[in-house]
Amino acid sequence: MSEGQGHEAIVARPYADVLVIGGGINGLATFRDLAMQGVDVALVERSDFVSGASAASSHMIHGGIRYLENGEFRLVHEAVTERNGLLRIAPHYVRPLQTTIPIFSTFSGVLTAPLRFLRHGGGKHRARGAALIKIGLVIYDSFSRGGGRVARHAFHGRRKSLELLPHLNRGVKYTATYWDASLHDPERLAIDVLRDGLAAGGDRARAANYTAAVGIVDGRVVLRDQRTGAETPFTASVVVNATGPWTDVTNLVCGEPTNHMGGTKGSHIVLDHPELLAATGGRELFFEHKDGRIVLIYPLKGRVLVGTTDIEHDMSDPIVCTEAEVDYFIDLVRYVLPDIVVDRDRIVYRFAGVRPLPGHGELAPGFVSRDYRIEASPLAGRADATVLSLVGGKWTTFRASAEHLADRVLDLLAQPRRSSTKGVAIGGGRGYPMTERSRMQWINTHRDGLSFERVATLLDRYGTVATDVITAIADDPDDEALRLLPSYSTAELSHLARTEGVVHLDDVLMRRTSLAFTGAVTAESAAEVASAIAPVMRWDAARCRDEVTRGLEMVHAADPSWSAETSSRSAASR
Fold first, then answer.
1. Over the stretch 105-114, which tens digit does the pLDDT of each residue have?
2. 3-state secondary structure of 16
């Protein structure tokens, strides 16, 4: 993936037909689509790829059943269609997810839901009862007809519900179970999208992380290398602003102030809690908390993800998971699984992000549209150049929103579309074995001297692009397992650092691997990872120490209670 990647590739040829600003999933997907059309396209991201809003998702690819209450039928239909498509084209990371809704009343909400819709969330909240949820699930299932990849919903009464999930609140009257999809490794899927774009575009597709758009000079976008401070004016006929909740900030930098955005903050915690993990029965619990907010308890990677909040946020403020939000999460677990005791000691990771929602005035956050739109404006200083801003967008619909953006770009360039991205496999999803038999065959065919278990782990981790990782490991006579993280090896991590645009240690800890998410990052394990990639990154001992310090700070950036000193004392006490 390294060809066409990095700030140097941008500087070497400071012009393209299209400049995409923003390396989250929507920007990367637009980059991939345009590259597949043969467009000369460059992408820049001020931090690491997929490190902003796209890194703070609930790890779900879902149709958005609750959006039906808002009357967003177009969005739900598109989202269900895209969910089904991603199950086909990215099966290495997108997998069916059994989801259960605990329900505590029968008819509650049937009359008030339409009124809440008409009042945009106003009025007294009434819980959503079984009848209302049943109506929603029937509509939801209907959108999956003609290509559905998941089973239809099922309802159970109290006795069967408690038989299936014995730790549920005894006040439960029903459960409704339906299927959506999980997104096991969102950051790695995004890297696959980027890799595919670079491969499709050849020397006409370039991407650079840690490269910020900082201004406009004579109709050119000034790009700053965040590592050195060096600035390069870049010429493009079309600028795509895909910076999510920072869209207005980016447009201000580009000389066209806008007021499109009104994002809300969503936080999550990850728990290492075997009892809670077992109580979920291997399914996501998706339910309405006492305040009416839809929340989730979700088993993932041997941990339990709990979320999420929906809080108005000023983009000038830090994006953190507050102690009040942690209290809320602990309370919601207690509400639906009262037998399970959860405290802060079980938290291994916190993360928070701002949803790229449109401005919504006094509209309640839960009623703000999750749909997307595209806004056009001139580029300051150039009447013949256009800025296209994506307002909204979510993980589930990234392919569709990118296609719409790419179509607008192609219209501006007077260039026809060569092909659709619909149905085109992504990264390690190409040729991914979908049955146990084909999986066994794939592993045995690609072992290259490695153990069966090791290759199985790499297939799970990377999909079929694991072949490149296997080759890198087999070609390195000095490869060895890490002492503190034995499921990773030195050659594997070196391969990621060499080929996936790694600049800092936290890029590996948080986005090229799941180490941060699973709570595996300590000062000692971070130092071991830094040592493993140091030869590739050309880091000396002092740089490794600096990267470990920075890495720990970034891993814990969403935790306002964390400090290096308290972490050291806590580790010493254990």
1. 875 544 444 4
2. strand
